Amino acid sequence: MGTDAHVVVHGRDAAALADVARDDLDELERLWSRFLPDSETSVLNAAGAAPVVVSPATSALIGRAVEGWRITQGRFDPTVLGDVVRAGYDRSFADIPAVTHVGASDRQQGCAGIEVDQRVNVVRLPPQVAFDPGGIGKGYAADLVVERIMRAGAHGACVNVGGDVRVAGPAPGSRSWAVGVLDPFTEAPLDTVLVDDGGVATTSRTKRAWFADGEPAHHVIDPATGRPVARGLAAVTTVASEGWVAEVFAKAAFVAGLDDGLEFLEEHGVAGLFTDDGGRHISTAAWDGFSVEKRRGAAASRAPAPLEATAP
N or C: which end of the chain has fewer CB within 10 A? Predict the structure, then answer.
């Protein structure tokens, strides 16, 4: 996953459970990183069309990724690894220089032929197809860790993996967890969403960006073109029932662009906030139910008009 993580545990044995969460995240990194040659992702991608036995966590991750591809009608696609490499993201992001040459890859797209048998945790990829957990792994990792520490007795938990957040149970001193949303250009606070149990994810072109052969590039690939998405959006944030679901919908809406992305999220009743390249902020109807700013605006609109001073 190649990113920072933050864990907040509320309740008895909080420190011990936070250590469990850290160990679980380290293990998921070892399983899923495409930059580790012995990870399950790397072994699977090197297997050609041969079936590979993987861990239950990896089997479930790939099953959810394929489900996300179907739900979004291909806008979210976990098999664009070849295009990501061709865009220059062929190494850990920390190792990408300011200016890089476009990478080379013979990988192809295609989720339709992926076979996942979660009964025995066997996965088979079609020939020349590679799986990239980057578009769903952070959210699902947060889901797994929160589930584990809540089962272990936590009263409440919040896990943030690279900006994708999963919460469950009450927050310390409150019922809802307050999750901040930052402006993709300035990183100033833009809004806060109040979530009792669910996930919040952001897809942005401003975080992981570089130059490839003198042209600006970023890590979010449009499956229709094989190139970094260029549809006038800087970021999309979504709120959903789980972290992986929020990630899938944020990616799909970003790929779709503002008009089609709004229509897509509204169709599925997903709360979403869009920031376009001009800095405008546009939200779906469901966003109002989570947004602190929207609630403040509604309260202000219901307040009586202030008295105006008049000259004697």
Answer: C
- pLDDT for 153 beyond 70: yes
- Number of other CB atoms surrounding residue 206 within 10 Å: 14
pLDDT digits (tens, 9 = 90+) for 55-84: 999 999 999 999 999 999 999 999 988 667
Span 181-213, pLDDT tens digits: 999 999 999 999 999 999 999 999 877 654 555
Backbone Cα Rg of the chain: 21
**pTM summary value:** 0.87
Nearest to residue 162, comparing CAs of 7, 281, 38, 10?
7
In this predicted structure, what is the pLDDT of residue 110? 79
